[in-house]
Task: structure prediction
Amino acid sequence: MIPLIALGAFLFTLVGGLVALRFRDRLHLILGFSAGAVVGVTFFDLLPETIKLIGPEKIPLATVLIAFGFVIYLIIDRTLALHSHQDHCDKPRHQHHERGALGALSLSLHSLVDGLAVGFAFQASPTIGLIVTAAILTHGFSDGINTVGIILKNTSDRKRAIRWLALDAAAPAIGILATYFIIVPQSTLAIILALFTGSFFYLGASDLLPESHHDHPTAWTTVATILGIALLFIITRFAGI
Result:
């Protein structure tokens, strides 16, 4: 199953980038839905599972670790400049290329971490793994969109965008397969899931959601986000989480 999920992550990211090349003006709806899915999986899956693994008597420790994960992802986001919509009109051409490459590379590293999250979730339980996979696949789709978007916005080079898209699509698959060789004890797994919970909180609320509203503050984007949250709620409840 794991190799199939790795292939799925590759294909979802790849298709997301190709959709970005074809339908650039409707991406806010996809990003809004992706934001809702990531927030949903955080509230309805990762957070309860983190508390379960760490233990209800250690909830203060869980909240500290979750906050730490949030801060770590905040620092990575601000340092590596994940977003593609920042103003760069007055920059020289070579800085456009450098910014595009830096943004695409940071997204690829982020996709690698997403793949690790899927693999470690399966080590916690198959059900948790499948729920996290659902969120990561939708997020991988948006990652493909963002990778193409940041390259096109900085260079307008479609071939360059496709090359970076291929790297970004391979990254989560590599991360998933790597967990075949990285086995961690349950106590360590609880800490890892807590950190991922914090990063998912940041990713959904502070990265994907604002990105989905950029230049498109529409009611339909909000509806798409709510649908993403609702879908993950239904999936987690159907799975018995």
